[in-house]
Amino acid sequence: MNYNEGLVQRKHAVTQENEDAEDAADSDSSDSPENKLTLMEEIFLLGLKDKDGYTSFWNDSLSVGLRGCIIAELSFRGRIQLEPASMRRRALTSRKLAVKNDTPTGDVLLDETLKLIKVTDPPESVRNWIKYLNGDTWNPLKIVYQLKNVRERIAKNLVEKGIVTTEKKNFFIFDMTTHPLTDDNIKSKLTKKIQEAVLDKWTNNYQRIDKRLLALIYLAHASDVLEDAFSSLNDEDYDLAMKRVGELLSLDFQVESVNSNIPEVLWSVIATFNK
């Protein structure tokens, strides 16, 4: 092995060590007793009508967006990764998903998905997993991968965390379980965090944005709930915020997956929604 080859190998080794350390840090913080909100819970909260306690009947993007959140959350917790890239650098959305660490997270939705990914052979791509988890397939062999009652289970988690409560609401021809907010402060902080990221704290280098916050912005857009986060802005700030979100959406995700310290799985999720 020549000197240059040694340098390249050491560089790759250091990069992998840094990624593993970041994965461990994300996993520790997410699995801690303080129990931060998951990406799924944050997106659900953004789309939740505060007093009525339900999400929009007309938002077809929320269900599939929540499945993307599950994949992204598993990545942040160091449980899954993309298969190694070949010399041909296949598209992010076509690379297969693999389990990196099968230790349960303690979250029912995450652990159910992790088990499915682990036992599936041959492995599937991120794009396919999001479709299957949402039930978007005509293949009867794949329909078993559909996650059921996702919004209800997310709401249950939020009830247990004291953020929403459970009520029954009558809609004339049927009754529905609703989950009005009991803690307005949590959602207000969440909304403010997103607004500040694209306004007061905006930087032309997106890599300075916290990784989970960046994921939240992308996934809120994919789930069609970003408008809810920006609804309180005046017209000038709204236009500026949307312009900057547009800049994030215009990135070359394939290139960024190589050059940034953000998990490749997240870029694959983003690329799936912005194909």
From TrEMBL:
Decide whether keyword Membrane is in the record: yes
In terms of Gene3D superfamilies, this protein maps to:
yeast vps74-n-term truncation variant domain like
Where are the stretches annotated Disordered?
Answer: 1-34
The answer to whether UniProt assigns keyword Coiled coil to this entry is no
Q: Which UniProt keywords apply?
A: Golgi apparatus, Lipid-binding, Membrane
Chief site of localization: Golgi
GO biological process terms, alphabetically, are: Golgi organization; Golgi to plasma membrane protein transport; Golgi vesicle budding; retrograde vesicle-mediated transport, Golgi to endoplasmic reticulum
What protein name applies here?
Answer: Golgi phosphoprotein 3
Q: Where is this chain compositionally biased, Acidic residues type?
A: 17-31
- How does it sit in the bilayer? Peripheral membrane protein
Which family, according to the similarity comment?
Belongs to the GOLPH3/VPS74 family.
One Gene Ontology CC term in the entry: trans-Golgi network
| InterPro entries with a match to the protein in the record | GPP34-like (IPR008628), GPP34-like_sf (IPR038261)
- Give its localization: Golgi apparatus membrane
Q: Per its UniProt record, what Pfam families does this chain match?
A: GPP34
Q: Which GO terms describe its molecular function?
A: phosphatidylinositol-4-phosphate binding
